[in-house]
Design a protein that fits this description.
276 residues, 2 domains, 9 strands
């Protein structure tokens, strides 16, 4: 299949090229449902991609791993599955800092605006399996020196939070946190506008880079030795034949983290290939 190794990594069907990092998925590809995956595959996927990643996180991480593998002689294990590759290994899309700046779109407004900022102190410890987060923020009224707001974080399920925010001066509210994020919002209106009961509704999009680099991922992988033994098939004859013997040797003995991580990713790809 076209982009077969990548299909196995992202493990979803259908293309939506409005998503960041999207590449062609062969229409013949059928994802492996989680219930049919061996526990070792589930455990390793959760480390490499997160427990509940969205499609953009899968795209982002897959691009990282594939560039690592294609950057050395390990690429032959990708093309041995299928030589038909269309994904772009040189695209700078995922390096564009503008992708990770929050955006605000106005749905309706009556005399109010919403500003959103990233709280850097929170960013250092914030983690999420989702690359893209989306909110609906509503200003439902201003009275008694407070602004009433409803914040919806889109997901499964949708999380809804209602709160009252103090008015910090005549033209804006105090900062308030967007549910489940490092973002803070502030309502603004013209001086004296609070008396006119401003309202509004906005959609906020924000992307968060994965917080774990390869060294952190390796530490997490080292903590699940039993799953890796199963992933490398060391409990059966398969683990002592190619390519699994090479993958295991690289993971255990290579002095280079690129080869160690690449070996785990390739073992995952080949295990997934057995399931489709």
């Amino acid at each position: 299949m076209i982009n077969h190794a990548r299909n196995l990594l992202v493990n979803y069907i259908g293309n939506d090229f409005s998503r960041v990092g999207e590449e062609v998925i062969d229409p013949k590809f059928r994802p492996v449902v989680k219930q049919n995956m061996p526990s070792a595959v589930v455990v390793v996927r959760s480390i490499l991609f997160g427990k509940e990643p969205d499609a953009e996180m899968l795209n982002y991480r897959a691009a990282q791993y594939l560039r690592l593998i294609h950057g050395c002689e390990l690429a032959k294990y990708i093309t041995e599955l299928d030589t038909r590759i269309t994904y772009d290994l040189t695209s700078a899309e995922l390096l564009d800092l503008r992708l990770f700046a929050p955006t605000v779109s106005t749905v309706t407004t009556a005399g109010a605006n919403l500003a959103v900022i990233v709280h850097e102190a929170d960013s250092a410890t914030f983690t999420t399996d989702k690359l893209l987060q989306r909110w609906r923020v509503s200003l439902t009224g201003v009275a008694d020196n407070t602004a009433s707001t409803t914040i919806q974080l889109f997901g499964t399920p949708i999380r809804t939070e209602r709160k009252t925010v103090p008015i910090s001066n005549a033209s804006n509210s105090a900062l308030f946190k967007l549910t489940g994020s490092t973002l803070y919002g502030r309502f603004m209106w013209s001086a004296g506008g609070a008396e006119a009961a401003p309202t509004g509704e906005w959609l906020v999009n924000s992307r968060v880079r994965p917080s774990s680099d390869f060294s952190v991922l390796e530490q997490s992988l080292r903590s699940v030795d039993e799953a890796l033994i199963d992933l490398f098939s060391r409990g059966s004859a398969q683990g002592y034949t190619e390519p699994f013997a090479t993958f295991y040797e690289l993971w255990t003995n290579s002095p280079y983290i690129e080869y160690r991580i690449g070996a785990v990713v390739l073992a995952l790809i080949y295990k997934m290939n057995e399931l489709v």
